[in-house]
Amino acid sequence: MRQNYFVKLVRYMKNVYHLERGLNKLSDGRVNPTFSTGQVILPVLFGFLLRIKSFNELNFMIKNNEFSKLFSRGTKLPQVDAIRDTLKVIDIDGLNQINQDLVKKSVENKVFVNGTIDGYTVVAIDGTKFFGSNKKSCSECLKNTKGKTTHFFHSGAVMSTVGMGPKLVIGFEMYKPGQDAVSKDEGELNVGKRLISSVMKSHNKLIDVVVYDALACNSIWINHCKNLGIDVIVRVKNNNNKSLRLAKKMVNKTEAVDVWEDEKGFEKVEVYESTFTMDNVEQPLRFVKFALKHNDKKRTQIMMVTTCMNMALKTLFKIIRARWDIENSIFNNLKSECGLEHCFVHGGKAVEAVLYLIFIASNIMQLFLVRRLKKHFTTQREMVRLLLKGLYLLKFKAELVFSSV
Ligand SMILES: [Zn+2]
After folding, report:
1. How far apart (Å, rounded) are the C-alpha atoms in residues 98 and 254?
2. Which of 159, 151, 141, 218 is nearest to 186 (CA)?
3. Partner of 214 for a Cys bridge, out of 24, 84, 233, 237, CB 3.0 to 4.6 A?
4. Residues near 335 by Cβ (< 8 Å), separated by ≥ 6?
């Protein structure tokens, strides 16, 4: 093997992103623990980097000493029960800090210096369910009962960058039963507001535009983002409010402001737009409709509302299409490859902790693929295969050891 990709990855994690620092700062609520928090968390993080599908699989790897070269000689590693117990009482802020530091470092390393879409740094938010199970549950679980079966799950909203460059999970926020509205859209909107507020506290200059789906097409969301200093793009569906119905009617009477032939993936795109005011929103807004004629002659349309009054129509079109990215490259990938749907462990802080670790692993992998390997690989699966091969061939070297304090 010409180069060991696992060695490359470890060096990248240690030397560029200084993962040791964050791991060594982690703490948890165990009394007299045998293993430090970092020692417990590191195998889990590598497990997610290597796309484990269950904690059993991780336990086999630990028992087979597959991670032993990453620790100083003679270090005994925790078994899966100790890992579960630690995750339930871990200090979540420490994990949040690791992800924040990753994102901050990537900004410092100029990952987003040219934005992600036509010079703008664009993020998307989407709600999703995590860790569904008919067997395991905890007191924080949401429930869905059909006949005699009760399905337990958690839900939340995730924010990630979309467009060019690595797709980084910038933050996520859990739905809190009791605090967030029971109705699906209203509940998620609340979670989304909390998410963007907390992200703006830690990364105040990163985001130019946030794109979200139709549940956020209202004055509550638009005003919330404007107060934070971020521009908004939201999808519009057919059942929206009165001022929007008027804007739609108005646009239907006008001529297209632009027509694009042979736009990537479409035979023709006709663009319509108008400016309107929404109840309870001070500033005027822009309503844009893209009437799409697909290559198979099928016709569909995308409608949006935005606060970006001067943004080029092509850029708006790119952004609204990139919104699909968050579903394709983040959620589908995380669900099919990283076990986001798999129930790892419920109870205490474990759900949130596992989510942080999955997102941290995903961010490291995205940065490693895009920045360090510059798209040498066609699929992430191929990358994982080579990483596993590298892990098996790994020789003990002091510089590759994650030292704990
Ligand atoms: Zn639960």
Report:
1. 51
2. 218
3. 237
4. 341
Each residue of 216-239: pLDDT tens digit? 999 999 999 999 999 999 999 876
CB neighbourhood size of 337 (10 A): 16
Most confident of 257-261, 339-343, 366-370: 257-261
Residue with tokens 């797709």: 167
CA distance 13 to 38: 14
* C-alpha–C-alpha distance, residues 34 and 81, integer Å: 13
Ligand 1 centroid–CA 150 distance in Å is 12
Report the separation in Å between the CA atom of 262 and the middle of ligand 1, taken as the mean of its atom positions.
Answer: 48
The whole model's pTM is what? 0.93
Q: Quick one: which of 159, 162, 70, 156 has its CA closest to 112? A: 162
Q: Ligand 1 centroid vs 49 CA: distance in angstroms?
A: 23
Query: What protein residues have CB closer than 5 angstroms to ion ligand 1?
Result: 138, 141, 346
Alpha-carbon distance values, 266 to 322, 345, 405 (Å):
15, 44, 57
DSSP string of 206-221, one letter each residue: T-SEEEE-GGG-SHHH
Closest CA to 177 of 215, 225, 138: 138
**CA atoms of 34 and 172, how far apart (whole Å):** 31
